[in-house]
Structures are given as C-alpha cells and as structure tokens.
Amino acid sequence: MPVLRSRVRRGRGGAAATPEPEKKQQEQKKNPVEVVEPIAKRTRRRRAAAEAGLATPKTNDKEHKTRNERVGVGGAVSGAVKEEEENRDLEVAREKKGVLGEKKPMDVLDSGGKSNDKPLAGGDDDEGTAAPIPDQVQVEDSPLYKVERKLGKGGFGQVYVGRRVSAVNTNDKAGAGAVEVALKFEHRSGKGCNYGPPHEWQVYDTLGGSHGVPLVHYKGQQGDYYVMVMDMLGPSLWDVWNNNINSNLMSTEMVACIAIEAISILEKMHLRGYVHGDVKPENFLLGTPGTPDEKKLFLVDLGLATRWQDSSTGLHVEYDQKPDVFRGTVRYASVHAHLGRTGSRRDDLESLAYTLIFLLRGRLPWQGYQGENKGFVVCKKKMAITSEALCCFCPQPFKQFVEYVVNLKFDEEPNYAKCISLFDGVVGTNPDMRPLNTEGAQKLIYQVGHKRGRLTMEEDDEEPQKKVRMGMPTTQWISVYNACRPMKQRYHYNVADARLGQHIEKGNEVGLFVSSVASYQNLWAIIMDAGTNYSAQVYELSPYFLRKEWIMEHWEKNYYISAIAGANNGSSLVVMSKGTSYMQQSYKISDSFPYKWINKKWREGFYVTAMATSGSRWGVVMSRGAGFAKQVVELDFLYPSEGIHRRWDSGYRITATAATWDQAAFVLSVPKRKLTDETQETLRTSVFPSTHVKEKWAKNLYIASMCYGRTTS
Ligand SMILES: Nc1ncnc2c1ncn2[C@@H]1O[C@H](COP(=O)(O)OP(=O)(O)OP(=O)(O)O)[C@@H](O)[C@H]1O
Questions:
Q1: Interface predicted TM-score (ipTM)
Q2: Which of 148, 177, 384, 564 could form a disulfide with 612 if both were Cys (CB 3.0 to 4.6 A apart)?
Q3: Catalytic annotation on 205?
C-alpha cells in the first residue's frame, strides 16, 4: 500500500473563462479517443469561503512590461532566427567550457568572522589596505578620540578602542562622554557601504540601547571611513570559549544562562520589528571586565539585520525564497537562510540553538567542510541530523530548544517565555549567583506574567505543533494534479526503453499527446492526454542527458521542448511538440540547481516550462511565450510543504517539478489568464500512484507534473 500524502488547494473560482479548455473540447470532439478511466462528473469547484479574503497576487509591473515588450519585438517573423542565435550562443559557451553546465558559486553575503566560514573575502583589512585607519577620530559633535588598540574585526569592519582626548568629565566610564569608547570603522568602498553609510547605522537608530544592544553615540564619515562611536564592551563569547584552555567548553550553567539572556535580547529586538540575521558566538559580547556590566550579555553587529515586520502596516513581511542568496555565517545559519528564504524570527532562534551547542560541545557536526559547495553540504547536514545526534552529551533542555526552533513556521511568533523556562532546571535558583546576568529574562517573565517552573514543551497545554522539519527523508513519487474539464488522460509507468515507442504510438493513434514524463530506476513514466493543444510531437530517447544536436535539429523544424525526463544512468527522454504557445526556448544542464541562470532568464522574459534531473544533474528548459505572469522556485532538502502552501495562497500553482536524491525543486507560476478552477493537489507516494490517479480523475483532477526523488515521509 503506497504511503499517501495529500495537499489540497481548493479552487478560487475566478470569473474569466480561458479559451484553452474550449479548444481542448473541440479537439476531443474531432478526435474521439479511448477513455482509460470513465469520467462521469463535470464539476466546477467554488472558491472556498475561507480563501475569499486572500490578497490577490500582485503583478510585478516592471517585469510584466519588459516581457511584453520583448515578446512584441520577437514576433512571429524574427522569433525563429532569434531562437537559433540564442542557442548557438549557448552551444558555443558550453563547448568552450568543455563541460555540460557550469557550476557557479552562490551569491554569498557571509559575515565570516572567527567561524572561518567566509566564502567571500572580507571588505577591509588593515594589513594591506590602501587607506590606513586614522590616528584620531571626531565625527558629528563627538569629542576627539585617539584611536588605540584593536578590539576585533569582522567581514565588514574593524573595531578599535577610542580614548577621549578632549576631556570634560574625565571619569565617565560609559555613555556619550565615556573616556573609552568602541570605534567601528567601515571603509567607504567596503561591501556593506555600496549605497552610502552602512545599513547598520539605521538599525542602531532603532535598536541601540534596547535591552542587550549597545548604544551608538555618534556616527559620521572621516576620510575614507564610516565611523560609529559606541559603548565599549568586553570579550565575545567566542573569545571566552577560546580562552578556556582546558577543554574549550563552557559550563552547562553558563551556556544555559547565555540561552536565557540571549532569548530575551532577541525577543526585545523582535518586538521592535527586526531580526538580527547573524546570531553567533562572535556577536555576543560581555560587558567590559571590571565594570558593573561585566556579567551582562550584549548582541552586536546589526549589519545583516532586516525587518520581519513592516513598519507602516505592522504586518509580517511576505515570504519569498531566492535559492542563490545567502546571508549570514555558514556555521550558524538556519536552514531557511541557507535556502535563501526571507529571514524571520525563527531564523535567529535556530542560529542561537547552534551557537549554544557549539559553546557546550565545542564543535558542530558540519564543521570542516570546504570547497565551492560548502554551503550546500552544510545545509544538507543540518537538515539530515536528528536532534538526538546534534545534542548528544547536551542536557535535555538544549535538545528541546532545538526541536522547538527548527519547527517554527515562517511567521510564527516564538514563545520566548516558554523557551526561557526550558533552561530553568539547569541554572541556579538565585539569579544573583549565576555566572551571567539574566536580568532581562527575569523582567520578561515578570512582564508576561508567565509562571516559571519546570515547564517543558510536552507539558504545555497548547495544541501539538505540526513538525515542519522532522519527517524522515525518503525518495518518493511526487505527483501534481490540476483541475480541468473532463478529458482523456493515460499513464504508463515502469516502461522500459524498448516499450516506450509502442505506448506513445498507440496514444498518438487515438489523438493523445505526451504531456509529461518522468523516470524511476531507469524506467520511464509517461502521461498522455487530449488536453495539450499540440498538433504534432516527436520524442527522442538518448543515452545523453538532453542531446543538443537532436534538440537543435527540431527547433529548426519549429518544435519546442514540451517535456523532459532524465534517468539515473544518464539517459534522457525529450519530447518536442508543435502547437505550443512558446516563441523562443533555451535550456541549461547544471551540476547544481541553476537558480542564477533562471533568474537571468526571467529578466529576459523566459519562464521555466520543463525540468528534470539525471542523477544529481539538473536540466531546466525556459521558454518565451509561456503564458505566465510570475514565477518562483521552491527548493529544499525535503518536500517544501510550507513554501508550497504559502505560494498557493498567493495565487501560484506548481508548473514543473524535479528532484534528485538530495533535493526537490518546484517551479510555481501565476498564469497570465485567470483560471476558472485553481484547484491543485499534490501526492507523495512510495510507488507510482496508479490507484490515486483514478480517484483524482473521478474528481476531474488530472496529472499535470510528476517526478521521483527527495521528499519526507
Ligand atoms: N562595542 C564593542 N566593544 C568591544 N568590542 C567590539 C564592539 N563591537 C565589536 N567589537 C569587536 O569587534 C568584532 C567585529 O565587530 P562586528 O561584528 O560589529 O564587525 P563586522 O565586520 O560587522 O562583523 P561580521 O563579520 O561578524 O559581520 C566583534 O566580534 C567584537 O570582537
């Protein structure tokens, strides 16, 4: 019995009817075909009441206009010529490189630091920089400071002690008039200053001085540097950990206190609408030794902070995924940050969980990877590891904290008080005796009136949380079904190479064309139906993944790629059709998911129209004239359930799927023409979903896309 996973989206029932179904019906009348499964009902789903209030998808005007302009210029006359030129370019590029598909590193905005996780070089380096750090600093109406010893350096800036030269109250230890301050220098051509003063300045304006965030007193430009004058603090948690010569480990009580105070600092930051975006041991600083603040915890480096909450509407920012954008530090980044998802409160807490485990155990299981796809490997490891394995030798509360944070949803408000209470049993009952000041957390508990005690996640009376990251990784069939008018559809699976022609010919004889193809264990699955609108079709089974010569030959004859599949043994099945709406086409083969290329082609008015994998290689076909207004990609190491649901809610539907043993990719599009019935369902099954397909047919749902690969059971 196959394992069934169903995700249902009910139709929105838009008013405008598309002409396509009518054409399909006419074609069906002209070509009566054998009905594989009788379809009795003809139903229309109504927009579910619950969805009536959902926002209509926004149109990206700029993108829309560009595409129309380009399509207009392309026209019927020049389309074929342009297409040929386009693909000659592609061919030349590929031959020059001598490989199929280039492997480009991701865009990494990695703040690096001591984690030694810095794929891109740091912006400024005093050793060798053309502009030396000034000897003295005076910005805005600040006192004059003499620049003394270096306190630290990150990927963006360098921090020095500034000693006040012009004396007013010479004994001030803190505040704007302090004798010693921290001076953060960022070179004006540094990577954080592309658009003027560092973004961090703005964030400090809002957050500076809030619980656990140092105050910035003055900021301004001096020579080649942007300079920020802030409260001077003491060693970072990384320094403390590193200086613990005996074991490199911190006491459990100390780490539990850090957990408690860090959660309360993050809670206050989140309350002001920001997420930090780079939580790690290097960015937590203690107060200056010998001062009343020496046992206080601070969080610095707001350079990657972003808003999770829109300042004008108060609403949560919109979900998005840009798989080639990474912000943060590889070692501590959340899985969602690795995958390029919009940062939200859950990400800070996940990074904090990794920070705590690092401080306790002295090492994280994904340390030590190097090379171009380090981010990919680290993310895969974070995704695969169980909380038991990650937290072995750590007391239970740390494991519970990990389990809680990795299962938070994108816009879910974390229960900070509950998280803090997890660590109650690990710290001493008298706050004054603790190795770290936990005053902020004390206040938080008091303010929310939360009863402290030995509360654990399980004992909570809330509904059990749906786990988003705890499923067992597996490989399965992923099939996608769309609502449409009754039509004939056939499927064949476990088809050996030799039998393929027979099935396709038989289908063609009764007017069916191949609408989608997939591969499993070097056998093929083909879907044929009467709803394609194609007028002619050719296919090739090749021992190579997307054989260029055959594709180009058929492009010349005005066929366009309409479906592709790749087998693990490297062979591929390419189907090309006449009668598509496409005006120009391009494809790419790549060792990693080619998001960068997709992004580039989007800007040129192309949309993904077919996608397949062969082993770990990806093949993506993009076309002009695809009939889409917008398109996005959901890429994950497991079935990206949350992302798909969010996209569905914004009017997207899955239009292409492909998966390797590691990753599943879903392309979702907003059609230009509003669909009469937007119902879409997905199934994940361990065997080909033959019985389920028949059930779907009975509900006028037809296979739109399928693939075999990575999901979660
Ligand atoms: N106010 C301060 N007082 C004392 N030391 C500080 C202060 N601010 C920063 N530092 C030290 O300087 C280091 C670098 O600072 P910061 O993290 O702000 O720079 P960055 O270039 O933005 O770093 P990253 O590469 O992590 O983004 C810190 O790790 C810390 O050791």
A1: 0.96
A2: 564
A3: no
